Amino acid sequence: MAGRHDPVANTGEVRSWLETASPHFTARHAEEDAEQATAILAQLEALRGRLAGLLDTLPDDVAVVLHGSDAQLALARPIIPVRRALTARSGRRLVAGGLWGTDIHLLSPRLLAERASGAEGSADMLALAPAALYARLAVCAASPRLPPPARIGTLVRAWRWAWLVEGIGAWLSGQTALARAAIARRLHEGSPPTFPPALRDAPLLGGTLVDLLAREEGERAAVDFAVRLDPGGPRGGLVHAFHGRSLTHTEGTWRAHLARLAAAPGA
Length: 267
Prior knowledge:
With 267 residues, the chain is of the alpha/beta class. The chain has a single domain, classed as Neutral Protease, domain 2. Strand 5 and strand 6 form a beta hairpin. It is globular and about 55 Å long.
């Protein structure tokens, strides 16, 4: 581990970044986050090994920047507070970081732990935030239709397909499997979610539709669907992904799947 002397403003303090490296990643972080930074890199290396069997290419030289405050994260990625405000309350805690090129910016592990609600699965989902962002980055990097590079066309597609872009990261990282309590809360707050999930529900519910596709068509089919992005758009793409099955049928199946995912164990 080597120290760096880049000053970082954090609630009036000036701190120096430290840098920790693994074979395929580097992490920049405060001194007090050194041990957890090593754990994050191990998490990402393990996920990278799994993704190597699903994607033809993987991004190299990925940097993970662990920010010591929400203000620091917002300065680095100003879109994150906006994205959080546009997200339904049940999924808002999951918006804890973002991407810039091949850099992953997110809150430090201790701040991720503080964001947890205390509900079942909340802390574990937030602990997987680095993996979710890396999985999203890897899928986007393998797709010629998604950023990076951040061009008008790729950015528009990323927002139009937000449920899939965010959902593939949540599903591949394991967040979706831990989301029972959060999904149950979403189903009881406000109007029912749209199909496919709208932007406000993408962080939490996008992975549930990916999960349905993977259960019916297999893991590779779900990943390929995200990489290729059907030219017919999200709705047309879903018809093709489920082999011509009507959207009405698929929507009903998805809503039943949501109910199962939200059900208490043994219910």
